[in-house]
Write a structure and sequence with these properties.
This protein is of the alpha/beta class. It has a five-stranded mixed β-sheet with strand order 3-2-1-4-5.
Amino acid sequence: MAFASFDSQRGSAPVSDINMVPLIDVMLVLLVIFIVTAPLLTHAVKLELPQASSQVNQAKADKVEFAIDATGKLYWNGEQVSREEAAARFAAAGRQQPQPEIHLRADQAVPYRHVARTLADASRAGLTKVGFVSDPENP
């Protein structure tokens, strides 16, 4: 590869060759930097950490089967209760830790106002885990 030429016809033509020397120099400098810094990244301190049990002590939440039949009668785990008694039991359940889950079963013929009153009583007592239970439709 000649940079200077005595040929007058090709002397003014642009050089189309890429000069690879600066590229190789940059790559060698980067290689040296990575060789120097790589051992610094793997530096570790040896520690003897204390051993502890990682088992979570969770209390199993109770569940309350609350049912409303077609006539609007209320049942707490199969026992018939009045609305006032149900509200008192909701308040007692709201103070328990962990709070029990309320599984609400309502007959399809019951007016919605009975379900809404029950939900309002449970919410007023501070219960947050209320679920509706239904039977799947048969095809």
